[in-house]
Please model this.
Amino acid sequence: MERKTKIIATIGPATASEAAIEELIEAGMNVARLNFSHGDSEVHRRVYGWVREASDRMRRPVAVMQDIQGPKLRVGTFPDGEVTLEAGSTVMLRPGEGEGTADEVYVHYLKDVDLAPGAPILLADGLIHLTVEEVGETGVRATIREGGVLGSRKGVAFPGSSMDIPPITEKDRSDLELGKELGVDMVAASFVSSGAHIEEVRSLIAPGVCIVAKIESALAYRNLDDILASADAVMVARGDLGIDVSFDTMPRIQKDIIARTNAYGRISITATEMLESMTSAPRATRAEVTDVANAVLDGTDAVMLSAETAIGSYPDRAVRTMSRICIEAEKSPDYGRPPEAEFLEDISRFASAIAQSAVAAADSLGLRAVVAFTESGSTARLLSKYRPRARVYGFTPNMGAYNRMAIYSGVTPMMLERVSSTDDMILASETTLLERQILEEGEGAVIVAGVPPNQEASTNLMKLHVLGEAATGMPH
Model:
């Protein structure tokens, strides 16, 4: 059984080599994530080149996702790399990026946070809890409620407090320029709070690049509809989000984000600690297996590995494990139900009606393939969102669309040379499907396209086609 849910794997020290990237692709990686919070431009250039070369050599479509750092709230540094904060003690938080002590900790963007006495502050990804006692001109005095070891540049969260932080830093701008030069397929925007943030990112990247909005705060969750109106995809970034909202609400919030993202016709991604134990162990825990499977049953388009493949001891094994879990989850009768809500106005009702009809026809006839001809990839994305039981084969002459379709659930991207007519387009795709033994002569398929070909026309054609029969009388 061919897996429909796509797998994003983060490239890091454990996998930043040609051989390791080939192993990840062979194991089932569909998207390579480059985390621009770490590494320099030369490292990212090399990794990008290796992914593209391996993808071409192996004839496997792999999208490249650039994950920019964003205005990450972090503490400063410490002389020995870490300090111990004792419960019951007080600590002064100072704005800036200086070197601190156990009594005085520097925090980036502290002046941009509207704090009041009694407000909670979480350090080290939520392991250390502080309560604000006093807010002054030069800093914030807080009581340590739950102590622990605080390392240099660890994360800070201010649950419930409003912030006025610039959404894109100078580092982000420089990194986006590099991503534009390289030709990345996707950009993941960190600490998104509004649709305006997405539009600012879009103004800095190449046309057609998919923007992934990372939902990492309670504010982003509250503004989800506004974000969905502008973004191409949404990532449930459970690490930071799980700190900013009550941990016991995370399962409900995850399901809600995925459902609403799917209802908008956007790509949904579930991330963070999905197979965390496999960073150091060869097998996943039962809880992790269930977590991945439930994300698939929730309707996520893709699941993501972070530390497991970036610094883990078993990166390709983690991808294989995730692939097996997805395939099993997809066998459930609860898998594949299309979103209940209608897609919003950015998708034409005409295109939506054709996609729905194509999926209904393929399902009712028990066909194994829906063939989508697409210049930008949008036709394949639309079909994917209606969750056909059949595989969607997205044929395109556009290399950018070919790579982007690697993230679409249930879609297999296919390159197609430009042709002059719809008949030639159908014939070329039929030849490919037969030569690769994907379908057999005499077998049926649903064909969906925008005509005339070679234009970014709206999806406006559906045809039931039997392979081996001449494709004549079609619009040119």
